[in-house]
Write a structure and sequence with these properties.
The protein is 34% helix and 21% strand. It has 447 residues and is α+β, with helices and mostly antiparallel strands. It is elongated, with a radius of gyration of 27 Å. The N terminus is likely disordered.
Length: 447
């Protein structure tokens, strides 16, 4: 429904300014809700059925009598041919299509408050693993249904997947779908169609596609929803094509530590370079995801992730970090808890981690002698983090302790800007700690 989020951009100089019509066909126009490369979307009222609908109106400057205009008109109505034969709870319903004077339009299900999934493809807005798996599960089943009806979507991407107010999913925009049905005689559109970043290897290289081309694209969407990063992003179309065709995707564990066992396998199989090695159907994808879904009780819920985010926000160490940087660390770092009396660091052992206390108190001892007590917001382990040397003191939990543990592997999972921000604050912390040590030594000399 929301066609405003498509990745295909167009030059505004070619966009004819068109005032909001009052009526299109039998539909009373209420408001404009979106605008994209192929058309403008309005909310409208269907008096005959007494319901609100969404109407996508083709941009008038593209509807003309030359060959390009005729092709665009056929492409626009291709969505009606494709979606018109589909009836599934996770596919946006298409009710009508028509021409009113110079206006070509499609009438679709209106989903109040729906947002596209690209909103949740950033490090600071990611959904929980459980919810992502549930979304992909529903998309896989919807695509399996479409494939069984002879429809290949060909443009699966976050902006074509609607997330409803009740956290359901709707697959939308079948405008470039390939229709393999004996009861459909519409013109097929082949060649370089779709959004390059989400194409399968066979699609971006303009080879024959099959139903599991959509599965590859859905895998790309899942990767982005889980990590906030695109696996194939590059500066040129040639580089994107090379990444899709030849480069392995980075492991999910490079970005976060809460990935359940088996999910990496499912994603890797969805995104095999050779079509024959991928899942053969969306139903097979859904079946494997269902097995993982049963094991997600131990995975952080979105509420617990927000609690972690808020706990880091309140710590002085993270003053100056923006929300995206904090979210990046929330998802990449190790979160540990210790009961009273539990040793966190042993003197003489090698350890390359740096610790920040979220709650509780720890005792620092050297050679069995107490040195100091650290509390919420304090940190320890700087030298081990810097040089992986033997620890020169023992750290023990005095109370129940929660802390965040960061090492070089942790930082590698975070994005580059987060790494730079963290290292700058870390260096400032080390400098401050050295100043304190120097002051203590100076006082001892005076005594």
């Amino acid at each position: 429904m929301d066609d405003s989020k498509t990745e295909t951009h167009y030059d505004s100089t070619f966009h004819t300014i068109m005032s909001k019509p009052e009526v299109i066909g039998k539909y009373e126009i209420i408001d404009e809700v979106g605008k994209g490369s192929m058309g403008t979307v309005y909310q409208a009222h269907d008096a005959f059925s007494n319901r609100h609908v969404a109407i996508k109106v083709a941009h008038p400057q593209f509807i003309n009598e030359n060959e390009d205009g005729k092709r665009f008109r056929k492409l626009f109505f291709n969505e009606a041919h494709a979606a018109g034969v589909l009836s599934h709870p996770s596919i946006l319903s298409l009710f009508d299509a028509g021409v009113d004077g110079d206006i070509c339009y499609l009438v679709m299900e209106f989903v109040p408050g729906a947002r596209t999934l690209d909103l949740f493809c950033k490090p600071d807005t990611l959904l929980s693993v459980r919810e992502v798996v549930g979304i992909i599960f529903k998309c896989a089943k919807a695509l399996d249904y479409a494939h069984r009806q002879g429809i290949i979507h060909r443009d699966i991407k976050p902006s074509n997947l609607l997330f409803t107010e009740d956290r359901d999913i709707k697959v939308s925009d079948f405008s470039i779908a390939r229709i393999n049905r004996t009861d459909q005689t519409s013109t097929q559109f082949d060649g370089f169609l779709g959004s390059p970043l989400y194409m399968s290897p066979e699609q971006i290289n303009e080879r024959d596609i099959s139903t599991n081309s959509d599965i590859f694209s859905l895998g790309t969407v899942m990767y982005e929803l889980l990590t906030g990063n695109h696996p194939f992003k590059a500066d040129s179309l040639a580089a994107i094509a090379n990444n899709i065709s030849n480069e392995n995707i980075p492991s999910l564990n490079e970005y976060r530590t809460d990935i359940p066992e088996g999910l990496e396998y499912v994603l890797t199989r969805m995104m095999k370079k050779k079509s024959s090695k991928r899942y053969s159907s969306g139903l097979d994808v859904a079946a494997d995801l269902a097995l993982i879904f049963d094991d997600l009780e131990k995975i952080d819920t979105e509420d617990s992730l927000k609690e972690k985010f808020e706990s880091l926000q309140e710590l002085g160490f993270f003053k100056g970090f923006n929300d995206a940087e904090i979210w990046s660390l929330v998802r990449a770092s190790n979160w540990d808890s210790y009961p009273p009396g539990k040793t966190i660091i042993h003197e003489g052992e090698s350890d390359n981690s740096f610790y920040i206390i979220l709650a509780g108190q720890v005792a620092i001892e050297k050679n069995g002698q107490p040195l100091e007590t650290l509390k919420e917001g304090d940190c320890f382990g700087e030298m081990g983090f810097l040089s992986s040397t033997e620890r020169t003191a023992t750290v023990t939990a005095k109370t129940d302790v929660s802390l965040i543990r960061v090492n070089k592997s942790t930082l590698d999972r975070a994005d580059e800007t987060t790494q730079l921000r963290f290292l700058k604050v870390f260096v400032d912390t080390v400098i401050e700690r050295l100043k304190q040590t120097t002051s203590i030594l100076a006082n001892l000399k005076q005594i």
